[in-house]
Structures are given as structure tokens and as C-alpha cells.
Write a structure and sequence with these properties.
- With about 500 residues, the protein is mainly beta.
- The chain has five helices and 34 strands.
- The protein has two domains: about 50 residues, no CATH class; about 400 residues, Quinoprotein alcohol dehydrogenase-like superfamily (Methanol Dehydrogenase, Chain A, 8 Propeller), CATH 2.140.10.
- Helix content is about 10%, strand content about 40%.
- It has a four-stranded antiparallel sheet with strand order 3-34-33-32.
Amino acid sequence: MQEVQPQRNMVQQPWHRSWPILGLLSLLLPPLAMVLVWLRPATGLVKKIAASVPGLILTMVYLFVLTDLRLEVDGSGMRPLLSRYDAESHFEALEESRRRQTSVASAAFVPLSEASEGAVWTDFLGPYRDSHYPAAIRTAWPADGLPLLWRQPIGGGYASFVVADGRAFTIEQRRGEEVVAAYDGETGREVWTHAWEAHFRESMGGNGPRATPTWSEGLLYALGATGELRCLVADTGELVWRRNILQDNQATNLQWAMSGSPLVVDDKVIVLPGGSSGASVAAYDKRTGEPIWQSLEDVQAYTSPMLVTLAGQRQILTVTAERALGLSIADGTLLWDYPWTMFGPPSITQPVLLGHDRVFLSADRKGAAVFEVVETGRGFEARTVWETNRMKTKQSTAILHEGYLYGLDGRILACIDADTGELQWKGGRYGYGQLLLASGHLVVLTESGEVVLVEATPEEHREVARFSAISGKSWTAPVIADGRLLVRNATEMAVFDISG
């Protein structure tokens, strides 16, 4: 007798849930297609998830193309951030803002008082590149935040400001050009601009220039993301000389571009092109731009060179992708080095000088270390003092105050003993923000654009005040000069009264 095979229970799907129709809807209306997929009663969970993935991707693509939605990542490089950004509208607003400024009669230029302590912020993170503002600031803030002096749109990038002679200088991305701009510190009026064609693009880190300009003796040294180094007259923006440090030194750009702020030392300007043929560090004549010396073969990091005195020797301190090291100012001779390699991208944060012979280093995914530089019969040697994993700064540099180091360990503020590395406290989630020190307090610009005041004390985390300063992802170091707090990100700049 022939065995009768049981028939499977076939569910007849309505025409609008058939796979051909769903495939067409996925192209035209992906959200509707995903809903219909999940309403199919005879479709398994795995198949529903697999069928939804193309719809999710197309939905995001349509949102980016048809709206001003933008997908970014936070400082971890892993956490997605959705923001609204229409590049054309932004640049139209910026250009209209600048046209209005030039159409209004300029007020008489009044420079900042030369006698005012802290009136000049000439370098990245301040005159000594240590994030310290030496004058008093207001520490009792109004409930609604510091008084706003002015606010306006700005071009893209992550360069901070330098301030001198009453003007604030930075470098921005405006459409297809890198633009060095000078702003009146009192009003925000654009005084002059100097531009060249260049547009660095990077999907994770973002577009535009990274390196903060440097001011010295009336000249401004600005480095673009693709290696264009220009010396300008700070008063007028007139070009004095130009070089491309990548071309000069047969160097390849870094993944996230040239980020080291130029360092002016004596008659030289020091930059970090990362050339492999003895041209990792380069010195140019600060007046003419003529090459003076080249040194090392290290791949570079995202740090800026510093002028320091260690073990009695005045020298250049910098951190490459492989090590921290000291160089002779005269000819770039290597004086000492200290191994500093890590998994993933090289260092972003600056070294911190601890006294006359010690240096603090910290990096994400590695931790922190203090080493000392000592003079021996054969020259100089760097020796480890302590190491810890309790401070892992990523994008912001730690700050030394009265024997303690304060820094963002990931997204959380932490305090450690500078002598031992012992953790004192952790508290306050500020994202991958930036910080300054003034009047015994930390001024924190959070990753989301808030400004927060925190007591710099080893006893405990004490947040004093906070307010929303700028909108959008904020990775740029804030500046305080002559009682003004300057903040910016890739779309907006604002200045607040923080005078004591």
C-alpha cells in the first residue's frame, strides 16, 4: 500500500507581503518594507532579521541624502552619534555672517592690555603648552552660565585658538579651502583671512585642519592638515613664506592628518612631518622658511613638540609613535629616549612636565607612566619612576596642580598622585572633552559642548557649575585669555566672560 506523505501547512501570504513586493518596497520605502516583513506569520526570526538589514541601511542612506542628518562617532571611535548638519546651509550662514561684519563700520581697534596677566595665549594649550591660565577667573558662576560676549558660525576642523594683541587666531575648513582667520577678541569681528586650496577628509575623525597655529613676535605659523605650513604677519595676514612639510621631508600623511602645532624656539620653527629618511622632525628658519635640520626616522604621533628643560638641559620634548624623546635645539641630535608604543593609533595627548627632571605620559589602551631624565657620564638616560592603569587619557592632556594630576580617564575625570600614581578619585562623566586649569579649578569643555567648573582638589570630585556653551561634538581645547573663555567646534565658536 502506497504511503501517503503529509503535506506541509503552507500559509498563503497576502500580495503586499510577498517577497517580490517586499523587495520593491525595500528600495522605495524601506521602513514600510521592514514592518511588513515582521508581520509575516510564517517567516522565522533569523530570516526577518536578515531581511531587515538592507532596509536599515537604505533608511540611513536616504536620511543622510535627503536630510541634514549626519552620522559621527564619539572619542572612543565606537559609539555612534547622530547630528543634524547641512554643509551648504552652514557655509551660507557663515559667509552671510562675515558679509554683515564687513558691511558695518569697524569699531576702533583696542588691543588687550599688555599689563594684564594672562592676556596672551600664544601656543597650543598656552604659552608653556601646559593648559595653565595664570590669572584669576570667576568661580561663582550665574545659574544660567557665564555671560556670553559673542557667538557665530565657524569653519570645520579641530584647531584651537591662540590669542595675542587683542586678536584670536585659528585655522578652519571653509568649503574646499583651509583658512587662517583673525578675529577681534572683543566683538568677534573677522579682521582678516588667508586661504589656500586643501580639504582633508576622514570619515571617523572628521574633516578639516587639526593643528593650532602658533604666535611669535608678531608672526603667525599655521599648519594645515595636508602639511601646508605658512608664516603670516599676524597684524594683516600677509604671507611671509610657505613650505609643505610632507613634500619637503618625503613624508606620508597620518591617518588623521598633520596635528602637531608648530613650536617656535630661538630662530627656528619645529614641526613633525614624520619622514622616514631621517626627516621625522624638521626645523625651519622662522624668518625665511629655509630648512635648518632634519632628525630621526620615527613615524609621528598626533602630539605637538614642547620646549622644556630636563636634567639642566634646554631641549625639545616630543612623543612619536614609538617613544618619547629629547632633541638638541641646535641640530636635532637625539639626547635620550623612552619607549612608548601602544596597540592602535599613536599618542594624541601631550606629555606633562613634573619638575626639573620628570615627565608624565598617558594614552588610551595603555595607561600612564612617569619617567625621569638623568645625566650620566655618557649623556642622558630616561628611567621609569612608576606606571599605572588608573589614568588613560585619549584626546585631552592631563594637568598638574600642586602635586596631583587631573585628566579624563576615558570619559571620566580622575585625580592621581604625581609622585606615586595612586588614584585619589574618579567622578563626573564628561565624554572625550578637554580641560584647562585656572584659580585652582578645572574648566572642562565636555564632548557635548557643555562648560563645567570642577575644583582641583585631591580630596574628592566636586563639580561647582555647568552650562551649555556650544552645540555639537566638541573636541577642541578651550582657551582663556584676558578673562575671556573661547570655545569652538567644527561649526560654532563662542566667547564668554570668565574674568575674576
